[in-house]
Amino acid sequence: MPGSSGRLRKEVQHLRRTGSLFRGRWMHVRACESTEERIIISVRKRFGKAVARNRARRRIRAICREMEPHGSTGHLVIISVGDGSAAAGFRDLRSDIVVAFGKLGLLHGSAIPP
After folding, report:
1. Does residue 23 belong to any structural domain of this protein?
2. Which of 17, 70, 71, 75 holds its CA 20 to 30 A away from the CA of 63?
3. 52 with 97: CB under 8 angstroms?
4. Residue 78 and residue 16: Cα distance in Å, rounded?
5. Which CATH number covers residue 40?
């Protein structure tokens, strides 16, 4: 899609300026209403080798996919994975995301997936 990266860049800048922030134990989650409905996962190089960074992305992506039916639409979300979260288990990451999405108003009502 031509021009979509420029539009996304503007949306991300808007998110960084005005979005709500949740600081969890394993990650930071920032969200705001947007025309771009997307979840961006950010893992710094300092996190570890590519295998570890990709594993963290896959885990976060799987958790977000599992929560999709319960979430609200029309939000741009950036999840910044902390350096220490390589030691975290799947349950720890999931609980951090559930709490973050709940506090940021990204879950419908009290519908938290089991």
Report:
1. yes
2. 17
3. no
4. 9
5. 3.30.230.10
Pairing of strands 38-43, 20-23: unpaired
* Domain count across the chain: 1
Q: Per residue in 8-67, pLDDT tens? A: 788 888 888 888 999 999 999 999 888 778 889 989 888 889 999 999 999 999 998 888
Pair 34, 15: CB distance under 8 Å: yes
Is 112 part of a structural domain of the chain? no
Q: Is residue 70 part of a domain?
A: yes
Residue 67 has a CB neighbour count (10 Å cut-off) of 18
Please list the alpha-helical segments (H only) found in the chain.
4-18, 50-67, 90-103
Pairing of strands 38-43, 27-33: unpaired
